[in-house]
Design goal:
heterodimer, A: alpha+beta, 6-stranded antiparallel sheet, globular, B: alpha/beta, 6-stranded mixed sheet, 47% helix, binds iron/sulfur cluster
């Protein structure tokens, strides 16, 4: 958290209503999101109890395990879940576009992709565990499960993995996304409560948001009081209907909150880079769909050493890119960098559009721009700069003195003798420059998987689930 | 025990703080939680006095948000029973693998039934005495035979009060070394457990290590014969099959020691309190508190709290203290990070005043005031609200 966000939280506390910490939306919102609110049986790692899900806010599906300790009922539940989720996922694979790749074969990319929306980070973790507990099952052999169950497991695993990928919108946790756009007047810990966070954003804090009798927890954990007083007797009664109705009371309020959260986010204009990140999501989704279609193996229990390092490197690059994009898309995010002296904004007071360096053939056009700013500039001369107003442009800080900063434009002003029109800002224009730029380090030279050094376990064996995986208990 | 306590004696003073409310024995979870907010004087005093904070919070109208689902309890009990079945046969198999023990058999002592006919307190003393003599014998013994002690009863002194620890724990001794074994029902999946659950288990296990070390020391043995590696037994993956892991709890031990040492210096905290201050709930015949709520609240407020959002998962008084922090407009409400970011500006109004320039920085506040003003300027500029 930054001082800017802290200030927003203080303001929120003082005014009794959440304050914006973003001026645009930084996630993609699907026209047809799959809202997924799962519940788990208390005390168990991954024993499903129920889920409310669907892509239509008026028609949620409620899936319940009426006797949560019964293994067969669990798999039946997983098959039902697959019956809703898999057709949804597959509905996005038909329409594709062909994408040319430099130095590679063209590939097919889905025009749109699924989006799973869960209430909170606990929902993501539970999605991962559900995926883990189902993807190694088999439809044949000694412990058969419905064919759709292992497939469901692979997709759930995929969605959980994408949730951890910086900037990806394939899986959203509602509390996380809201928290990226609004600062409440409570702690980050308390923001994990969806009812409470939505209340802060819409009408101000409400005591009842923390009352499980008014707003049941958004899962995956249930309220212990509900477990003791309602659920346990319902399960003991053996009436599936009673269990179902009991769980409906716990899920329906969260269901409404989830759509409210999506509406809140939809009220913000998308940031300029959102579409580009969603394009990467679509590509990732297509690759996964292809792997599934080609009968590839399920994701391994654990990555091999090289795969793990490669994944980490990818995530770090994605994180860096995401941070830069958010700052370029959103002046309020850029303000964080202005506060720490890594960016500055102000009005252009003077320009030398035809400034040049060198003579004759080596003469280079280097327009100068002088900006008057109130920001503390802590960047040394020579720092490479980028600017959100002209993303293709590159510059260099010449000097900063008493609120006047001179910038030399080095890239993105055309090839002519004079700067192309519009490439050099005019006097009076407001501009922002930052040392935060899109040049990230390329992928570190990691060996291919087959060349994993023996010190790191040698080349990984492709993971092929065996009968033991398939019969692993799910108790 | 000598029945005579001097006036002003810390233990006496602590008893007075609790008044007629029966003491609440600390369990390992409570002791482990002592270290959660070491800076809080309110909590240190209440815990030192052995006060039932849960009852106090309920009486104050701010019941703690902690509850345990019957499903979780059932599951925990079933798993423990499985691990301990047939004289801990399953446990022994795992220990053999984990600690690479060449032993075929070990002796098994169940201490649970000792003293069961006595009343609770003296029963505890009996069981503890029995545990002591068993451990003493093992520590003296030359022979290398391994022994499992089920339901040993350990003790720790918290601010002058003996807390008996009723563990679901087994102490395992072999070749003169003792290991604490802790059984937990959260799952370890593909070698990973939920971090917060694992951390809590390590903190609790550290309490047992400390108690057992103290015991050895009292008996004149080398306390370091209790290993700082505890054995954590959890279900593996999605099955009920247990798996044992060694967990190093040295760090947790250090934190715990520091906090316990702090609690022996409670007299300093008490020095500033009014003589007649008490948290007495004045339980009536039926055990229900009869003390006027406002009076109790007032007494509690006389002690300094140090609310942090972490309290919401560690301390029974959390809702009371949060409410107090709200009324005071304390920036603590927003979490440690915000507090640190504000560099010591404790009140919301003060921080906002510095930000919008309506308040002049006090000495030493110039830097944070400059940052806050800048932040305020930037927010206004970006949100177009000039
Ligand atoms: S809840 Fe109150 S008494 Fe408990 S640790 Fe926090 S501040 Fe101290």
């Amino acid at each position: 958290m930054s001082l800017l966000t802290s200030l927003a939280r203080l303001r929120a506390l003082d005014e009794g209503i959440a304050q914006p910490v973003a001026t645009v939306r930084h996630c993609h919102l699907s026209a047809r999101p799959m809202v997924f609110v799962p519940l788990r049986l208390s005390g168990e790692a991954a024993a499903p109890l129920a889920a409310m899900l669907g892509d239509d806010r008026d028609r949620p599906r409620l899936l319940v395990v009426p006797q949560p300790r019964n293994r067969d009922l669990r798999f039946a539940w997983a098959a039902e879940l697959a019956g809703v989720l898999l057709p949804y996922v597959e509905s996005f694979t038909a329409d594709t576009e062909t994408v040319e790749r430099r130095g590679g074969d063209p590939y097919e990319r889905a025009l749109d992709a699924p989006q799973l929306v869960v209430p909170n980070t606990g929902g993501v973790a539970f999605t991962r565990l559900l995926g883990r507990s189902t993807r190694f099952r088999r439809a044949d052999g000694p412990y058969p499960v419905p064919e759709s169950v292992p497939l469901l497991g692979r997709w759930l695993t995929y969605f959980a993995e994408r949730a951890a990928y910086p900037g990806s919108s394939l899986t959203l946790a509602a509390t996380e996304e809201l928290g990226r756009h609004w600062a409440s007047g409570q702690s980050g810990l308390e923001d994990g409560n969806l009812a409470s966070l939505v209340a802060w954003i819409t009408e101000g804090p409400r005591e009842e948001a923390e009352d499980p009798l008014v707003w049941p927890p958004a899962g995956p954990a249930t309220d212990p009081g509900f477990d003791a007083e309602v659920l346990a007797p319902a399960i003991d009664s053996g009436s599936a209907e009673r269990v179902t109705e009991a769980l409906r009371t716990q899920l329906a309020p969260t269901w409404r909150l989830m759509w409210q959260a999506l509406d809140l986010l939809a009220g913000l204009e998308p940031g300029a880079s959102v579409a580009q990140r969603w394009e990467q999501d679509r590509a990732s989704f297509s690759a996964m769909a292809e792997s599934v279609a080609e009968g590839g193996p399920p994701q391994p229990r654990r990555d091999g050493a090289v795969a793990a390092a490669a994944r980490l490197a990818r995530m770090e690059r994605a994180q860096a890119a995401y941070e830069v994009q958010r700052a370029y898309d959103d002046p309020l995010v850029m303000a964080e960098y202005r506060l720490t002296g890594e960016a500055f904004a102000g009005e252009v007071v003077e320009t030398v559009p035809d400034n040049a360096e060198g003579e004759g053939r080596s003469r280079k056009l280097r327009p100068l721009v002088v900006i008057k700013t109130d920001d503390p500039v802590l960047l040394p001369p020579g720092t490479a700069l980028g600017t959100p107003e002209r993303r293709a442009q590159g510059g260099e800080l010449v000097e900063a003195h008493e609120g006047l900063v001179t910038v030399k434009i080095t890239k993105g002003m055309g090839r002519g003798k004079t700067a192309a029109p519009g490439t050099v800002p005019d006097v009076g224009e407001r501009v922002c420059y930052t040392s935060l730029t899109g040049d990230f380090q390329g992928s570190p030279g990691l060996p291919d998987a087959e060349a994993t050094p023996w010190t790191h376990g040698g080349p990984p064996q492709q993971y092929v689930p065996d009968d033991e995986d398939a019969q692993e208990e799910w108790s | 025990m000598s029945g005579l306590k001097r006036e002003g004696d810390p233990a006496h003073r602590l008893d007075a703080l609790r008044g007629t409310t029966p003491p609440r024995p600390h369990d390992a979870r409570a002791i482990a939680a002592l270290a959660a907010n070491p800076g809080c004087a309110r909590r240190a005093l209440m815990d030192g006095a052995g006060l039932d904070k849960d009852a106090a919070a309920r009486h104050l109208g701010f019941p703690a948000p902690f509850g345990q689902s019957p499903f979780a309890i059932t599951r925990g009990n079933a798993f423990e029973a499985l691990v301990k079945a047939d004289g801990c046969a399953e446990l022994l198999r795992m220990l053999r693998e984990l600690l690479r023990l060449p032993v075929a058999e070990v002796a098994y002592h169940d201490v649970e039934n000792v003293g069961e006919n006595a009343d609770a307190r003296s029963g505890a003393h009996l069981r503890h005495a029995h545990t002591r003599s068993l451990i003493d014998r093992a520590a003296r013994g030359e022979d290398d035979a391994g022994t499992l002690y089920d339901h040993p009863l350990l003790a720790l002194t918290i601010a002058g009060h003996t807390a008996f620890l009723e563990p679901d724990v087994v102490a395992f001794q072999l070749g003169g070394r003792f290991h604490i074994v802790e059984i937990k029902s959260f799952a370890v999946i593909d070698g990973q457990a939920e971090p917060s659950a694992a951390a809590a288990a390590a903190r609790q296990a550290a309490v047992y290590v400390l108690a057992l070390r103290t015991l050895l020391e009292e008996l004149g043995h080398d306390p370091l014969r209790v290993s700082h590696d505890v054995v954590l037994v959890c279900p593996e993956n999605f099955a009920n099959r247990p798996v044992a892991t060694l967990v190093d709890v040295r760090r947790q031990l250090a934190v715990l020691r520091r906090q316990l040492a702090r609690m022996t210096t409670l007299d300093r905290l008490m020095a500033g309190l009014p003589e007649d201050l008490t948290f007495d709930l004045r339980p009536g015949e039926d055990g229900r508190p009869t003390r006027p709520v406002a009076e109790l609240a007032d007494a509690v407020r006389r002690t300094t709290a140090r609310y942090a959002p972490d309290c919401l998962s560690t301390c029974d008084l959390c809702f009371f203290c949060r409410d107090e922090a709200r009324q005071e407009g304390a920036s603590d409400l927003l979490g440690r990070q915000v507090r640190d970011e504000l560099g010591g500006v404790a009140s919301v109004a003060e921080a906002l005043g510095l930000a919008d320039g309506s308040r002049d920085p006090a000495e030493g506040q110039e830097e944070i005031a400059r940052l806050l003003r800048n932040a305020e300027r930037l927010r206004r500029e970006c949100l177009g609200s000039v």
